[in-house]
Amino acid sequence: MTLEQVRRLVALGESIHLEFKEAAYALPETFFETACAFLNRDGGTILLGVKNDGTILGVQPEAVEAIRNNIATQSNNSEKLDPACVLFPTQAVVEGKIVLCVQVVADSQLHRTKGAVYDRSEDGDFRVVDPARIAELYNRKKLFYTEGTLYEHLRFEDLRADLFPKVRRLMANRNPEHPWLALDDRQLLAKAGLFKRDYQTGKEGYTLAAALLFGQDEVIAQIVPHHRVDVLVRRQNLERYDDRLDVRTNLIETYVLVMEFIGKHLPDSFHLEGTTRVSLRDKIFREVVANILVHREYTNARPTTLVIYADRVEAENANVPHHGSGPVQLDNFAPYPKNPSIAKFFLQLGRVDELGSGILNVTKYLPQYVRGAVPRFVDGNIFQTILPLAVYPLGVVADLWLDRLQLRVAEVDQQAAQQLAVGESLRSHLDDPERLFYELGTSWMRKGHRLNLDKTVPDDEIPDFAEWQDTSPPQKGNRLLSVKLRHFAATLFVCLEPKPLAEVMQLLGVSSRSRFKTAYTDALIQRGLLALTLPDIPSSPNQRYQTTQRGQEFLSGS
């Protein structure tokens, strides 16, 4: 988990999906009660070294290793968690103090700790003793998490024995001391939750998840006859395809085959993270491929598809929306696993990071792979992932707006504005700069009103395009934007490249530092459109202000 993610969680405060615990020198006694509750409800994150009110206390450096080891070993012990569920903490340094982060993915099985069942609410963890409530939890999981469907007559011999050595190599590469490495094949499947007992009927057997991960092809075809991943290239032949990969095998090998096909058809680009050279293509598409495999609803007959077009990649997988439908908003989305056992298994193999990292990583790396590109994720009965491969820049329209806002910026700032990607809804106006100028301004008016940046009622203030065209060129910007909105837009344009506050004020021609901060920069920061480059040291002489991805989307009409 990144420092930025930890900061965001701390700012959100405790909730049904987030727990803070003090852990200066030892693992808190209530740790496994919370872990059990998260497993039984919707999953969540435990931050160790944080007070209930969000104050960062930290874990003492000399205690970190012991706490991490305790979590990893005890979570694999069925006396602590039954069934066992291996948890691997990560760490981040916040305000100079160590915070341990433990993500607990909701599971398709009912868990106990010390023989007791725990559940989670907004008020925290609570013990469940009523048999009817326990049965309700069990049935909820059984109905929602179809990967846990038990096949009493699915035998160990129906699984691919040759996959186990591959799985162990992948686990060892990620963690040479992984506790599952010492287990035999049957024990490994049981620890992974792929073999289970139905506590209502007493039946035992391997699950749908076991068949999907390890099953022989003919076995998978009998259990899930509609299982298919269809990968197409449609650059020239849009009705059929230029190339195709039709995959109907286990998920472990499906991942490899799809990644190889993508590598064949999409260019690579390298990026330095510190001193390490990484493949941007792999960084992005390992997340996309893992997501369409891990989070698919496998009882739905619709095939999973990934289509490579000339200007975009679109991926779709059957889904059961858990928190409503519609576009995913990064600032408030709540990730959840459709197939917890499959998700956890991919995590052990190093093919996914913590829950929710896929969307965050794609959003982080795509603009570096395709400058200005913004991914789009849509939740619903079909989960959609749309990644632009071509971006349509604002170009001359950015110059027009810089002129109307009376901004005289350096060449690097002008280029950054020109390269902003035009929002999809405005691309039909790319051949008409004046109309695009108008549509962009009206989008700022509507967004400004929606974000409470400006009190103007849009429907009463937006001029008709034909009427607006008759306005003299110097007044065209003023007809669309109030003085306040012009300052907001100008601030976002100026800060596309990081700048100190004094330079921002100079470029905008303002003199009152306190008034400008309160009325403009602080308001933009609160709405996620602007950010400090050193948020932990607000008064640093090296502090800079930078327009965020959301701020860029505001400017480009996305």
UniProtKB/TrEMBL annotation:
InterPro entries reported for this sequence:
Fic-like_C, RecG_C_sf, Schlafen_AlbA_2_dom, Schlafen_AlbA_2_dom_sf
Q: Which domain of life is it from?
A: Bacteria
Q: Where is the Schlafen AlbA-2 domain?
A: 14-124
Question: What's one Pfam family here?
Answer: Fic-like_C
Ranges where the Filamentation induced by cAMP protein Fic-like C-terminal domain occurs: 501-548
Q: What is this protein called?
A: AAA family ATPase
